[in-house]
Amino acid sequence: MNRTIRSMLGVAAATAVLAVGVPALTTTASAATTGATTASAFDVDFWGSYYSKYRNGSRAKASGRVWDDGDSEVHVQGRVYDSNSPSWLCGYVQVKFENTDGDESYEWARQCGSSGYRSFHYSEEDVDSVQVRVCYWDKHQAKRVYCGRWNYIYEADSDDE
């Protein structure tokens, strides 16, 4: 039942995205052109909002969606926000892809300044799990600080479903 609800939410989200003309979920020229066909090809899950640790009453935030395109590629799309932080801190999100052999690869996005957000979209093939965490980026020290915990946003389906 949980998978059915997720699928229905994915269909609704994909249809809404297509209705406003944003091709966020179509990644190839051969993607279907109708909302129902496109939505059934993807199992879209929304993740977040996830936060960094507090720094003087402010926190960085990230949220988005994750889906498997059916061709062994997992996509992670989202936005990272920086709000009310000192000028030397930037909102920062890390995305960790892991395969069945335990090999990891990382992607990141950064938003400096309180106005708006930074969009990101990453994809990897043959992914077993994906995790995200939100931090601040310290421009003076050129490193991550005040990181929140790692959150699983995708795990490959097992054969028992």
From TrEMBL:
Protein name: Photosystem II stability/assembly factor-like uncharacterized protein
Superkingdom per UniProt: Bacteria
Signal sequence range: 1-31
Biological classification of the source: Bacteria, Bacillati, Actinomycetota, Actinomycetes, Streptosporangiales
Source organism (scientific name): Streptosporangium saharense
Keyword annotations from UniProtKB, A to Z: Signal
PROSITE patterns referenced in this protein's UniProt entry, alphabetically: TAT
InterPro entries reported in the protein's UniProt record: TAT_signal
